[in-house]
Write a structure and sequence with these properties.
single chain; about 230 residues; alpha+beta; Sortase, Chain: A; eight-stranded mixed β-barrel; 8 strands
């Protein structure tokens, strides 16, 4: 009888552990989503406060970014040479009074994600959300721009770009910056090698954002690239 009770206790413990292992990723994902939502809501609130203040220089900041993108296009993105350069921010929002380098957020309904977007693909930024690659166009839209947004293929605690292969031609992607929401749709999908710099350059006459992540899932010897063209 005593042995039977022990077996029941052991069985119950194993059942609880098994259930915990199964639901742990789900719980972590929900916690990450809640935290991301709080970050986005805080960002939106701060932008609204900034717009209402006497120091509202957001339009000036926008024009500086437009000029930055124009210069980038005209010089052929000559400094886009290696992965290290992606991490170094050469247009800093902190210099304009922002608390951090968060420039907006990305919403992809087909993937069920809404993620903060940070300037510079540092480890910290990629752990918090997705990141704009330095020496690609800043994400404010415009002809002859291509803002490249990188994200992990997912952590154990957050999906991020894990389900990027769900995206199909025509799917909508929304990028909200401090000024407006830009609407894009998926126009092309490629798999490239990590050193294929030409694949992420500005394309003449187009207004693009390019989503990029490691490929295949759980490996990093290729890159999965989704080109999205602006429609609004």
């Amino acid at each position: 009888m005593k042995r039977k009770r022990i077996l029941i206790v052991i069985g119950s413990i194993l059942l609880i552990v098994g259930v915990g292992i199964i639901i742990y990723p789900y719980i972590c994902q929900k916690l990450y989503e809640r935290n991301a939502k709080e970050i986005i809501n805080d960002y939106t609130g701060r932008i609204e406060d900034y717009k209402e203040s006497e120091d509202d220089d957001l339009e000036w900041l926008y024009q500086l970014m437009v000029q930055y993108n124009k210069n980038l296009y005209e010089n052929g993105q000559k400094n886009l040479v290696d992965a290290f350069s992606y991490q170094q921010v050469d247009f800093s929002l902190i210099e304009f009074g922002f608390d951090e380098e968060m420039i907006g957020y990305l919403n992809i309904p087909k993937m069920g994600i809404e993620l903060p977007v940070y300037l510079g693909a540092s480890k910290d930024n990629l752990a918090k959300g997705v990141a704009h690659l330095t020496q690609t166009s800043l994400p404010v839209g415009g002809v002859n721009t291509n803002a490249v947004i990188a994200g992990h293929r997912g952590f154990s605690t957050a999906a991020m770009f894990r389900n990027i292969e769900k995206l199909e031609l025509g799917d909508k992607v929304y990028l909200t910056n401090f000024r407006e929401t830009l609407t894009y749709q998926v126009s092309e999908i490629k798999i490239i090698t990590p050193n294929d710099i030409d694949a992420i350059l500005i394309q003449e006459g187009r207004d693009l954002i390019t989503l990029i992540t490691c490929h295949p899932y759980r490996h990093n010897y290729q890159r999965y690239v989704v080109y999205c063209e602006r429609i609004q």
